[in-house]
C-alpha cells in the first residue's frame, strides 16, 4: 500500500494540523522522542500532559504523531500507512514495537529456560 501521499491528502493533513488547539504550540521539548531515550519515560510524560489538557483519543493520536524526531520519526514514517487513518492505540503500538520495553538477554534466557509445555499444548504452541 505505502507510497506517496497525493496533493489532496497532504492538504487534508495540513488543514487538520492547523486546526489543532493552541496546546500544540506549548508542547514542551520533553515531549519529543528521538528513539534513543526511554520509551516508557517518554510515554509517561506524554500521558501526563494529555491528561492535564484532557485530550481526546484523536488529539492524543495527532499530538503523538508530532513528537517523534530523528530516528523515531524515520521509523514512524516508514511504518505508517499513509492511506489508512491509524488510531491512537495503533500509533502507540507501532512505536512501542520499535522502541519499547527491551528485554535484557539474561531475562530472555531465564524466561526461555523456565518455560515448560502445558498439558494441553502441542509442541507448536
Structure characterization notes:
This protein is mostly helical. It is built from six helices and no strands. It has helices spanning 7-18, 39-52, 57-66, 70-79, 88-99, 105-114. The mean pLDDT is 74.
In percent, how helical is the residue content? 40-55%
Structural class: mainly alpha
Shape by Cα distribution:
extended
Give the strand tally: 0
Largest sheet: none
Strand content: under 5%
Termini distance?
A: 32 Å
Low confidence ranges: none
Number of helices: 6
Order of helices and strands: HHHHHH
Radius of gyration: 19 Å
Q: Averaged pLDDT, please?
A: 74
Which short descriptors sum up this protein?
6 helices
Task: Offer a quick outline of the entry.
Helix content is 54%, strand content 0%.
SSE inventory with pairings:
Elements: H1 7-18, H2 39-52, H3 57-66, H4 70-79, H5 88-99, H6 105-114
Helix pairs in contact: 3-5, 4-5
Amino acid at each position: 500500500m505505502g507510497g506517496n501521499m497525493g496533493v489532496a491528502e497532504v492538504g487534508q493533513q495540513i488543514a487538520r494540523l492547523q486546526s489543532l488547539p493552541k496546546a500544540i504550540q506549548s508542547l514542551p521539548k520533553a515531549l519529543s522522542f528521538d528513539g534513543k531515550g526511554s520509551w516508557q519515560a517518554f510515554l509517561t510524560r506524554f500521558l501526563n500532559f494529555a491528561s492535564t489538557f484532557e485530550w481526546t483519543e484523536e488529539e492524543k493520536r495527532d499530538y503523538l504523531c508530532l513528537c517523534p524526531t530523528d530516528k523515531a520519526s524515520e521509523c514512524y514514517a516508514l511504518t505508517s500507512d499513509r492511506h489508512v487513518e491509524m488510531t491512537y492505540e495503533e500509533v502507540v503500538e507501532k512505536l512501542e514495537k520499535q522502541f519499547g520495553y527491551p528485554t535484557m538477554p539474561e531475562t530472555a534466557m531465564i524466561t526461555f529456560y523456565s518455560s515448560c509445555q502445558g498439558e494441553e499444548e502441542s509442541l507448536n504452541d
